[in-house]
Every structure is written in C-alpha cells, then in structure tokens.
C-alpha cells in the first residue's frame, strides 16, 4: 500500500510538470496564457474550457502568480467568477482543481503504476461558476520569484499581491467584469479571504479601475484565530452529539477559560478523555468514515486518504461515557 501511494504521489508530481511544460518553457517575463484542451492521463479532449497563465504582481522582484481558470460549463457570460484560494499556506491550487471543487479527479482504484488517470467530476463547482484556481502565496505550486527577496512573504503581502493579481487578471479578461465576483477558499485561506475582500471592497469605494462586481466571500472550514479555533472543537462535538452532556459539563468545570496549550492537569485529563471519544471520527466530515494509513502513525498531519477500503468508525468501541444520554451506538 505504501509503495502504491508513493507511486501515485510521484505520478501526480509528474503530471503537474507536464501540465505546465509549455508555459514553463515560454517567455515568463510577460503575462502568458495558454488554453489547455488535453491533459496527460485524461482520455480525449477536456469537456470544459481551461486556461493557465502567469500574472506579475511584483515587477521589482519578478514575482509571478500562476493560475488555472476554468470557465463555467453552463453560462460563462453570466455565471459568477470565483477566486479559489487553497489553504496550507503554500498548497498548490491544483489540489482545489483535482481534489476539492474542480472538474477533475483522480481514479485511485485503477492505479497500479506510472501516470495516474484523470476523470471528469460531474459535481464540480464549475458547473455554475467561472473558477480561478490561484497558486498563492509566491512559492506555492508554480508561482515563483526571480529573486530570493521576492520569496519572503507573509499574510499581508499575500493579500496585497492577490489584490494586484485580480486587477491585472481582469484587465486581461474584461468580458467578466460584470459577472458577480466571490473570493473563496478553505483552511488557511480563512486568514486571507476576508482581508482580501475588504481590500477589494475598499478599492471599489475609491473608484479604482477596473471596477469589480464584488459580492462577498465564501470560506469553508477556515482558520480564523488559534485562540478560538482549537477550543471550538469540544462544544462542536457536544452539539453534534459526539460527546454526552455529562462529559461536556466536566469539560466546562475542568477547563473553563483555560483552553490554551497551558492546561491544568484536570483540563488535560478531560481533553484526553474527549480525544478518546472522538477517535475514529473524521473531523472534516463527521458523517463520513475516517480514512487513514497504518504507516502514518497517530499524528493528525499523517492522516491521508490512502486506504479507501479499510476505513471504519468502530462505533461499538465507544465507551458509555462518550454517548449521548438515552442513545445507543
């Protein structure tokens, strides 16, 4: 299983290189775009319109952000434009294109060796929206800088450069200026999308050109503030019936406001007990089984969707202390 997963990872990396081979070999000193009609691993022409390209966002350091743009499969002239920012920070936008909301997906079941097979996803967001998948910040995916200084980034700089990207992208795609614009993303993008939306809205108020038809932002499972994000897991688990009222009351009495890293011993013991209650639960979608691989150990960062066939919740092993009163598992 480990060899198969390693081979698939190498195949995906090779596929990414093939996708942008033409662009990488072209003159990247200018904003280049390429229409992509075929992809390695996909049988036949793509059933949607996809453009790839670079946009310069820092001419002093030669910082250029790479993007995939997939037009809506319904009504490109009228459907919204969605800027999709992947989390990380530093994850390639290709993950959004092929793993999350895009029109492509891998076929892992049939993979044995070599180039992985790409298939068309029927429930893509591109059915109803024009989606820009952006490699941001610089260094993510195929976005690059001509200087070492240009790679020095932070959330504020990522927001500024993404705002510049939008302005220049619309200058090259004026036909989409009247379409509603939404800034979207997941995970770490929860720290980027709101201030980016604010900056774009501020530019609109000041009359900056081109005038964008901004409607709002969309974020899923976002990072906001670690002071609030991590402690929110316990009340969420309680409200969703994953831990009992009794267990939750013990948590509140033991931890109170002390939900940070410096927990008292009673609070730590309470968290350990709750962790056992939530063992085997997919924290990203509690109605779906957690898929994990034995060789990845118990760390959260090691949990990957590799072993599709061996995942099971094991609800019968949950102790009575975890159960909601009056219900059996």
UniProtKB/TrEMBL annotation:
InterPro entries: AB_hydrolase_fold (IPR029058), Peptidase_S10 (IPR001563). Residues 1-26 form the signal peptide. GO terms for molecular function: acyltransferase activity, transferring groups other than amino-acyl groups; serine-type carboxypeptidase activity. One of its GO terms (biological process) is secondary metabolic process. This is Serine carboxypeptidase-like 18. The keyword Signal applies. Transmembrane segments: none annotated. Pfam families: Peptidase_S10. Belongs to the peptidase S10 family. Keywords: Signal.
